[in-house]
Amino acid sequence: MKITRAVVPSLFTTLNIFCGLLSIINAHQGKIEMAAWFIILAAVFDSLDGVMARITRSSSQFGVELDSLADVVSFGAAPSFLVYQIHLNTLESWGILISSMPLIFGAIRLARFNVQLVGFDKSHFTGLPIPAQAITVCAFVLQNYTIGFGLSGWPREMLAPLVIALSLLMVSRVKYDTMPKFTRKDLRAHPWKAVGLILGSLIVIFSKGEYLFAVLGAFIVWGVLRSVYKWFKGYSESTAKESEEETEISRIDI
User: Fold this and answer.
1) Are 174 and 128 contacting, i.e. CB atoms less than 8 angstroms apart?
2) Residue 20 lies in a domain
3) For the chain, how many structural domains are there in total?
4) How far is CA 209 from the centre of its chain?
5) pLDDT tens column, 203-251
6) Which of 66, 74, 111, 207 makes an SS bond possible with 42, Cβ 3.0 to 4.6 Å?
7) Distance CA 192, CA 187 (A)
8) Alpha carbons 123 and 180: distance in angstroms, whole number
């Protein structure tokens, strides 16, 4: 059997799936902190498989499909089971419905992404990436449902609204930047992407993870605000253009 370069990124994708399974097992056993960290570790492997695919130049449709299947497990099923186990089971039928949203909406988001994918390089995501949704949920869980981690003051009742909002953002038209590639071409075209990533990473590292939820929240809100600004800008330009056309027509009539 011939081993190709495509095995390298697929190995990291497999580790991603394995971490998703370990998260579900730990959540079932009541080990909430471990379950959350395994989802975050799965996100690390998810980012590395893309890096390795570019390094080995082995990007393929097979890799895209395998990556999506892994993401459904690690960032859809695992977070859904986690939030149900720790709190949403107290909401009975509503809890089941809300906790299913990361899995269902995440699968829809990934299916849309695969259908719309042209080539393997992209400058942005349409909708919140499913790993970002999962890590944000985990950051909230670590700060509010484990002992001795992170900031206090976030009411636990925020979990259900947070899950709903993040799930809806995954299938929205809000655009989010992809991870910077740190190539000369990419740094010239999008320097602020690299600056934002480095700054956010330093804040998380020096705060020992305490500001992980805050950093991710800022990233998510920034995407929403930018999309709202662009919508208003486009609407204003469209209105101004229509007004000019109406004025021109009135002049012709006169």
Assistant:
1) yes
2) yes
3) 1
4) 18
5) 888 877 778 888 898 889 988 898 888 888 776 666 666 566 555 555 5
6) 74
7) 8
8) 9
